[in-house]
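INTERNAL AUDIT FORM
Audit reference: QA-55
Scope: verify that the stored structure record matches its stored sequence.
Auditor: D.O.
Record contents follow.
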Amino acid sequence: MTAMSPLFIQHRAPYHGHLALEMLDALLVSAAFGQQPTVLFQGDGLWQLVGPQEPSGLGVKSLAAQLEALPLYDVERILVDEDSLTERGLCTEQLSLPVRVVSRRELRQLLMTHFPVLRF
């Protein structure tokens, strides 16, 4: 049996509490231990990838700037939900990272081939 890799699903807006940063921390820990994680942005989580972000008025650092470091930590499977992208009127050119767009059918496959699935 092949070992499965974790799937992190981020569905919250970038500065809605601390969950986005907690997901980023967990994702980087997973990558540091060689688990080859996949991250999926869907729903309002897509806004995390839209830049530039200027959250200094909130007293926090830009989440988009931190997410841009994912490839440096060998997090290479960065996915976005096609329906979420369309619903928000966004295109991949507006995102701060190169991503792969996945369809609803591909989402079902992701859920079946990754373990654990962590939704933030």
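Auditor finding: record pair retrieved intact. Strands lie at 5-10, 38-41, 77-81, 100-102, 114-119.
Action required: none
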